[in-house]
Amino acid sequence: MTDVHHPANGVALGVIGLGAMGAPMARHLARGHGRVHITARRPRPDLVADGAVQHADAAALAAVADVVLLMLPDLPEVDEVLAGGLLAGDRPLLVIIGSTSSAPGVRALAERLDRESGGRVRVVDAPVSGGEDGAIAGTLSIMMGGTEEDCALAGRVLEPCGTPVRLGPLGAGQVAKACNQLVVAATIAALGEATVLADRSGIDLRTLWDLLGGGYAASRLLDTRKEKLITGDDAPSGMAKYLLKDLRSGAEVAAATGTHAALLPALLAEFEELVDAGLGERDMAVTRRFVAEREPG
């Protein structure tokens, strides 16, 4: 294959993990940089039409890529892709981990890759916030951790997807995402509980949230979940079980920093109970249903 480097940015970019977040991000990257290399279990003619080049597997992608963005659920899936051929190339490779994962886990992975590749493979962690809506709109907040040089390159690559910002050394992106998810979990838990209180008190929910949305209770989460909270529709978009995973990462950060958090343990207990109740596959707005159905105890 010829002309794998796009002159606008000087690197060949790959994306693996073309789910609800990864596919729209790959589309923005293809449009923004003129080309992006992808691999997936099934053909993606929609992305090819937007400038993506599809490869048969990770090894074929690694043969042409300088930078690869991994939009996968967590580090076990990242390890699977790495072992499945992504490390087969012989060129320097920057791996951008977009997964929301453990900060110590990301650091350990980067140390192993550096050791096993003789420094050929470098890592930046870059979890994102903004959900599927933000990925589609190209307005994600992208929280990066890594060396200044690697984050500068990752930032140039990821700019079509939103606002990439380096927050510190490797793992800093994951710490920032844990902080983000602490606020998200607290907010959606409060919104769900307040919705039940208002509903059982005979208050019209639409009137309530339209009014409170103009005051200090306003938030991006209320804007995006208001309709679900009002109607009780918790069909999955951002699944609640992922918040539990992220709160556990937050608890890991708290332990590592000697922080005796007050809210984090309560949220962790709530979302553990919610997932145990079989509601983890629902949208995070399921906090309304969780509170409404919860038994005394």
Can you describe this structure?
- This protein is α/β, with parallel strands linked by helices and 297 residues long.
- The chain folds into 2 domains: 13-169, Rossmann fold (3-Layer(aba) Sandwich); 175-293, Orthogonal Bundle (N-(1-d-carboxylethyl)-l-norvaline Dehydrogenase, domain 2), CATH 1.10.1040.
- 51% of the residues lie in helices and 14% in strands.
- The chain has 13 helices and 9 strands.
- The strands form 2 sheets. A 6-stranded parallel β-sheet has the order 3-2-1-4-5-6, sandwiched between helices. Strands 7-8-9 form a 3-stranded mixed β-sheet.
- It is globular, with a radius of gyration of 20 Å.
- Residues 1-8 have low confidence and may be disordered.
In short:
With 297 residues, the chain is of the alpha/beta class. The chain has helices spanning 22-33, 45-48, 58-62, 75-83, 103-117, 131-137, 148-158, 172-200, 205-212, 220-231, 240-257, 263-276, 287-293, and strands at 13-16, 36-39, 52-55, 67-70, 93-97, 121-125, 128-129, 140-145, 162-168. The model is unreliable at 1-8 (pLDDT under 50).
Shape: globular
Proportion of strand residues: 5-15%
User: Could you name the CATH topology of the largest domain?
Assistant: Rossmann fold
Oligomer: single chain
Q: Major sheet: order of its strands?
A: 3-2-1-4-5-6
Compute the number of structural domains: 2
Distance between the termini: 64 Å
Average pLDDT confidence is 94
Low-confidence stretches: 1-8
Secondary structure: number of strands: 9
Secondary structure class reads: alpha/beta
Radius of gyration: 20 Å
Supply the CATH class of the largest domain. Answer: Alpha Beta
CATH homology superfamily of the largest domain: NAD(P)-binding Rossmann-like Domain
CATH architecture of the largest domain: 3-Layer(aba) Sandwich
Main beta-sheet annotation: 6 strands, parallel
